[in-house]
Amino acid sequence: MKEDDPTGEYDFRKLCDLGFRIKTHNVAEALTKARGHQSSAEFIRKYSLNVSKNTLNNWLNLEYGIPLDMAINILGWKRLKELEINTLSSGRASSYRSAVLPTKPNLPLMYLIGATIGDGSLRHEADKSYFESYFVSFEMADKEVLSLIRDIFQKVFALKKPIRIIRRKDGRKTYLLKYSNKVVYYFLNRFFGLGPRKTKTVGIEGLKKMSRDQKLALLLGLYHTDGSITNGNLRFYTSSEKLKEDTRFALRDLGYNSSTYTYKRKNYSPEYQTSVIESENFISELQNMEAILSQKSI
After folding, report:
1. Handedness of CA 203, 204, 209, 213 (dihedral sign)
2. Which of 7, 17, 202, 210 has its CA 20 to 30 A from that of 42?
3. Distance CA 51, CA 41 (A)
4. Using one digit for the tens of pLDDT, what is the confidence trace for 126-165?
């Protein structure tokens, strides 16, 4: 399979083998048409389906969600893409852990990628009963930024969550936004390389093919979660050497020079502080992008 083109459509074949399901009439109708006059037993044998006739009928009648893998196997990815499928679920019922997925890159999604790289957390948990949970969360002291992340998350994935207040033992107060959704978890993991791994290895996948506005949206998300402005000078902070280099590449591609100071910390990985030289114009561009992303119509 070819690598994804960030300017093109996302290939949901990357989400096969995860048990995701589709529950839409147009897919059920397309599968029924593909079945034609074959009996359930003949259809099952033809496509080597390891299911009973009752289960097949439940799928075609939309009693249960239709497995994504099966739909691709029978209809082919090209046909399934024509049906404009963008909602997947991780359970038999469409309402169970479902999410709307973007079919192609957009500015709100790129902002979320930057924010997730900067301060997001992807975590997979499994208990002794084999029940698994998949979390995407953000925790920070800036409620205004977290509210923007929540609003954009809802625009992109059609998921609603309240912001919770977390009071630390040392008296600090932070805000938490936490989603439990396997579909979104694996979308971020398989298309953007995000996941539960050490921050020193994180980078920006597909950066070279992003448009100017996509880079600005991503850098805005990164600035909101891992950046600061001091005396008019904008800085990005990271312990990932790859992310530092990717950030400098994006800035250079946008026409901005930058410099990096390496802050060495005892018992910790070094922190890279990337400063944008003559930040005024860049800050103005980020402010314009934030105004665009804050519009309710996006």
Report:
1. negative
2. 17
3. 10
4. 765 556 789 999 999 999 999 999 999 999 999 999 999 9
* CATH 3.10.28.10 residue window(s) in the chain: 107-293
Helices (H) and strands (E) in the chain, counts: 11, 12
Burial class (CB in 10 A: 0-12, 13-18, 19+), 238: buried
In the DSSP assignment, the letter for residue 34 is H
Q: Where are the alpha helices (DSSP H) in the chain?
A: 25-35, 40-46, 53-60, 68-75, 77-82, 107-119, 143-157, 182-192, 212-226, 241-253, 280-293
Q: Are 252 and 212 in contact (CB under 8 A)?
A: no
And the tokens for 3?
Answer: 């690598």
Alpha carbons 46 and 62: distance in angstroms, whole number: 21
- Token reading at 271: 């922190």
* DSSP one-letter string for 64-102: SPEEHHHHHHHH-HHHHHHTT--EEBSSSSTTSS-EE--
Q: Are strands 120-126 and 99-100 parallel, antiparallel or unpaired?
A: unpaired
CATH superfamily of this structure's domain 107-293: Homing endonucleases (3.10.28.10)
Confidence band, pLDDT 50/70/90 cuts, at residue 3? very low
Question: Would you report the helix, strand and coil content of the chain in percent, each value rounded to 5?
Answer: 45, 20, 35
